[in-house]
Amino acid sequence: MTKVLIATVKPFAPAAVSEIKSTLDAAAYDYTFFEKYSTQDELIEAVKDADALIIRSDKITREVLEAAANLKIVVRAGAGYDNVDLAAATEKGVVVMNTPGQNSNAVAELALGMMVYQARNHFNGTSGTELKGKTLGIHAYGHVGRLVARIAHGFGMEVIAFDPFIPKETIQKDGVAVAESVEDMYATCNYISLHIPANEHTKRSINYNLLSKMQKGATLVNTARKEVIDEEGLLKIFEENESFNYVSDIAPDNKELLEEKFGNRCFFTPKKMGAQTAEANINAGIAAAKQIIGYIQKGDTTFKVN
Ligand code: 3PG
Q1: What is the dihedral of CA 149, 151, 153, 156, to 10 degrees?
Q2: How far away, in angstroms, is 98 Cα from ligand 1 center?
Q3: In this predicted model, what pLDDT tens digit does every residue of 146-191 receive, in sequence order?
Q4: Mean pLDDT across the chain
Q5: How far apart are CA 143 and CA 260, in angstroms?
Q6: How far apart are the C-alpha atoms of 88 and 62, rounded to whole Å?
Q7: CA dihedral 267, 272, 277, 279 (to 10 degrees)
Q8: Which of 272, 276, 279, 305 best tests ligand 1's pocket when mutated (most atoms within 8 Å of CB)?
Q9: Residue 80 C-alpha to ligand 1 middle, in angstroms?
């Protein structure tokens, strides 16, 4: 019997757990939910006899993969797979997939929610500003970026996007302007929302040079990955641009320093909350379970990333 381990430090919502169970029950698969564990050693122990693995931001290192002698497939229930050692998985013949688009709406809603929170001075009782009429730059126009654009239009924002991998026409048909360059977009906008993945090209790419283009009073919103930010550059910008704001769903390593020095000009969720909705968990969780069944039973490799 195929054994699936659902290893989630940050558990899925109860409704998603029950949907994942039904999906795996229907295929007569055996499964174990392994939630809120705290060490890699616990995961190494748990993964030993698994044929398939469903994860979220859980770190799948070479050591974990080496401990999992029967493992055939890992599905990241979500978008970013920077938490999986792809080279080690490929070496071991383990297929890695993600579930693109399944949790995007939750992340997009949070991005706009964080903009409102910052615009209204963290709801501290003072007069803030509105999003209507402001310009939003979307850095990377993938599943989340598109939804952010759609919601921002509802707020009455002007939307610009930069994404060298997406044809201009695709962006323009959504009523979104295409930035000439990433620098131009940062210079033009009141808000910048990051939706780039963390990889060798993007890590620390949101650096001093780019941030120094931003306007007075502008807000950078990061619901992507903390690794894309150059934290030294960020600190320098906070000091130089005295009305620059940074809100993020992934606290930087220098979180305490920023909070202490810049107070209400920054905000960090205590835990990554972007995909933490029942709907996102259900969509991504069911997709992950179905992709495992599709691969084991039919060799379907749609959404394979290695
Ligand atoms: C993703 O890459 O899908 C998001 O960052 C969500 O991550 P999470 O599943 O750990 O909440």
Answers
A1: -130
A2: 10
A3: 999 999 999 999 999 999 999 999 999 999 999 999 999 999 999 9
A4: 98
A5: 35
A6: 5
A7: 130
A8: 272
A9: 7
Ligand 1 site, residue 76, Cβ cutoff 6 A: no
Q: Is 39 helix (H, G, I), strand (E, B) or coil?
A: coil
Closest C-alpha among 283, 280, 248, 249 to residue 265: 248
The number of the ligand 1 atom at minimal distance from the alpha carbon of 276 is 11
For domain 3-102+277-298, the CATH architecture is 3-Layer(aba) Sandwich (3.40)
Of 43, 35, 72, which is closest to residue 60 (Cα–Cα)?
43
pLDDT digits 0-9 by tens, 110-156 = 999 999 999 999 999 999 999 999 999 999 999 999 999 999 999 99
Q: What is the pLDDT of residues 22-34, one digit of tens each?
A: 999 999 999 999 9
Whether CATH 3.30.360.10 fits 104-268: no
Token digits of residue 111: 């991005």
Hey, what are 301's tokens? 């490799």
Exposed/middle/buried for 132, CB within 10 Å: 0-12, 13-18, 19+?
A: exposed
Residue bearing the CA closest to ligand 1, atom 9: 56
3-state class (DSSP) for residue 254: coil
Which of 12, 55, 57 has the most ligand 1 atoms within 8 A of CB, as the residue to mutate? 57
The beta strand positions in the chain, using DSSP E, are 3-8, 30-35, 52-55, 73-76, 95-98, 135-139, 158-162, 177-178, 191-194, 219-222, 245-248, 266-268
The residue type found at 19 is E
Specify the DSSP class assigned to residue 84: B
In the reported structure, the alpha carbon of residue 224 is separated from the centroid of ligand 1 by a whole-number distance in angstroms of: 9
Report which residue type is found at 260. E
Outline which parts of the chain fall under CATH 3.40.50.720: 3-102+277-298, 104-268
